[in-house]
Design brief:
This protein has eight helices and seven strands; from the N terminus they run αααβαβαβαβαβαββ. By secondary structure, the protein is α/β, with parallel strands linked by helices. The chain has a single domain (9-215), classed as Vaccinia Virus protein VP39 (Rossmann fold, 3-Layer(aba) Sandwich), CATH 3.40.50.150. The chain binds S-adenosylmethionine (SAM).
Length: 221
């Protein structure tokens, strides 16, 4: 489990125990991700994402950051029969691995993996989405935001993972040099979300920190 200063260790282990994976494919994916150091969504955040998806019943989901397809599969299984997911990934090895798992989950017709740098791929997308999950390079969330806003339907849900970055975003005092730029960018990103009149945003301190925004204003420009 990733060390963080967002939640207490005893709460993390309690949640890990309660939310222990019972699905064999997802369990296999979690094991592979741990072994290969692939940062998939944490169990409590995955459960929260699933809950948001269940409540909002999206027909079209956009995910930015597929990795091995773990969160895509969780979302796709939660959606209605006709629901579709477009998920964007830059790394070819990840795409290959994701394609294998998605096939084994029998979700090839529901999940479309789009290969490329998200900033460029999103530029080419035009049909809006009911639900957007941003989970790619944290240092580039600000750059992705206008695309996500353009592609989010009125009343759509916009979720971003890792916004508290192991708690460092909220920390006063010394931050190691290698993390400073990312921290500055994440703080700015959170501020942009919270100050946006078209969104109502909540910051949830679970996992690595999640924001949930609902589009309450108009996206007409
Ligand atoms: C945190 S992982 C995604 C985890 C996945 N959502 C899950 O929980 O199963 C982030 C992924 O974003 C991808 N990524 C990073 N920068 C990207 C970019 N600019 N465009 C597309 N994908 C990117 C990485 O290769 C990595 O696989």
């Amino acid at each position: 489990m990733l060390e963080n200063e967002i939640t207490y260790p005893h709460i993390n282990s309690f949640l890990a125990d309660v939310l222990k994976q019972s699905d064999p494919l997802l369990e296999e994916m979690e094991k592979y991700a741990r072994k290969a150091y692939i940062p998939i969504i944490q169990p409590e955040s995955a459960q929260f994402l699933k809950m948001l998806c269940t409540v909002s019943k999206p027909k079209r989901v956009l995910e930015i950051g597929t990795a091995i397809g773990y969160s895509s599969i969780i979302l796709a299984r939660t959606m209605d029969e006709n629901g579709v997911i477009d998920t964007v990934e830059i790394d070819e090895d990840m795409i290959e691995k994701a394609a294998g798992y998605i096939k084994r989950a029998g979700l090839e017709n529901k999940i479309r993996v789009l290969h490329g740098d998200a900033a460029e791929v999103l530029e080419c997308l035009g049909t809006p989405y009911d639900f957007i999950f941003l989970d790619a390079a944290k240092g580039r969330y600000i750059e992705m935001l206008p695309h996500c806003l353009r592609l989010l339907k009125p009343e759509g849900i916009f979720v971003t993972d890792n916004v508290l970055y192991r708690g460092m975003v909220a920390k006063d005092g010394f931050i190691e040099h290698k993390h400073r730029t990312i921290i500055v960018r994440l703080k700015e990103y959170i501020n942009l979300l919270c100050r946006n009149n078209e969104l109502t945003t909540s910051i949830i301190p679970i996992g690595d920190g999640i924001t949930v925004s609902v589009r309450t204003g108009s996206n007409e420009s």
